[in-house]
Design brief:
45% helix, globular, 8 helices, alpha/beta, disordered N terminus
């Protein structure tokens, strides 16, 4: 079914191909920054930390590597990259929400894990070609107004031989998990959002997952961007997908 650009989703967020989409999503994340970590832990029973660790495993970084975490939010994935890379490499985290970045900087200082956090548009990254050994994006790809353009940008800033890793929520296809997933994300998560004071934000979450490409299609997008050795790992019964690909050369 086609949807005109000025039609809004049930969550109140404009359609992805509208001019207002990025501004609305940025405003939403600005509003929920203060409860973001608590809600993540509540919705995932704390498992999101393990999923980020598995994503960093796929990035194959080590001491002295240079890594970029796109849509870094409050910084957990970037900080995990810093733990693996150590003091000699460079870790950059970027996001389009300043309140999220402020929390990330605070975490970085509290944990004594220096990361360069800064504002950036994921569709127009302010970094040179071939700047990083690894690029990651955790739970942010579904928020991009143009996913293919975002993948192209992340690929552009990768060095030859570097790896792009996408950690994202997926939709399990098999019962009984598919039924539980539908109950949890479509019904209970919006209720949690109401309790957290922002029902629109947590109604948007299941909407954004519902419209995100299935694992096979996302793998095809990585292939179209020129990446090689593409693979994906499903966790939590298919609720979480980690895609990775290597830049040739």
């Amino acid at each position: 079914m086609s949807v005109s650009p000025d039609t809004e989703a049930e969550s109140g967020v404009p359609q992805r191909d509208s001019d207002e989409f990025a501004d609305q999503v940025r405003g939403m994340f600005d509003r929920i920054a203060g409860v973001y970590d608590l809600m993540n832990s509540t919705m995932t029973a704390g498992l999101h930390h393990q999923w980020r660790q598995r994503a960093v495993d796929r990035a194959e970084v080590g001491p002295g590597s240079d890594a970029l975490d796109v849509c870094c939010g409050t910084g957990d994935l970037a900080l995990e990259l810093r733990r693996r890379i150590g003091p000699d490499g460079r870790v950059v985290g970027c996001d389009f929400s300043e309140p999220m970045l402020e929390l990330a900087r605070r975490k970085s200082g509290d944990q004594d894990l220096p990361v360069e956090f800064g504002w950036a548009d994921a569709l127009d990254l302010p970094y040179g070609d071939a700047s990083f050994d690894a690029v990651t994006i955790g739970f942010g790809a579904r928020n991009l107004a143009d996913l293919e353009r975002g993948i192209a940008e992340m690929t552009r800033v990768l060095r030859p031989g570097g790896r792009l890793v996408i950690l994202e929520i997926s939709r399990p296809q098999r019962q009984p998990l598919a039924g539980f997933y539908s109950l949890w994300f479509d019904r209970l998560v919006p209720v949690l959002g109401t309790l957290a004071g922002d029902p629109d934000a947590y109604s948007y979450l299941p909407d954004s997952v519902r419209t995100f490409p299935e694992p096979e299609r996302l793998a095809g997008m990585l292939d179209a961007a020129g990446l090689a050795q593409i693979r994906w790992l499903l966790l939590a019964g298919g609720i979480i997908a980690i895609h990775s690909g290597r830049k040739p050369g």
